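Progress against Task 2.4 (sequence-to-structure conversion) is shown through the following example record, which the project officer requested during the mid-term review.
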Amino acid sequence: MIVSKVQKQPKVNKVVVIAPQNPPSKLAATSAPRVHVSPDRIRERAYENFEKRGRTPGHDLQDWFRAERQILAR
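Structure tokens generated for the chain above:
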């Protein structure tokens, strides 16, 4: 007697991407001045944020982005 096993195919969830109604203009992208910030400065500020938060792991990206915002705000 031959018994074949039937494998179920996984369901594929559809992903819908909605494009913005008003794409940003080239003028808006070039009108803001570009500021170069040293990654070393961001790293130091991110570590300070890490220490202020009580040195709990798992929030490294938040610390990094917060450090970028703090440095660029000056």
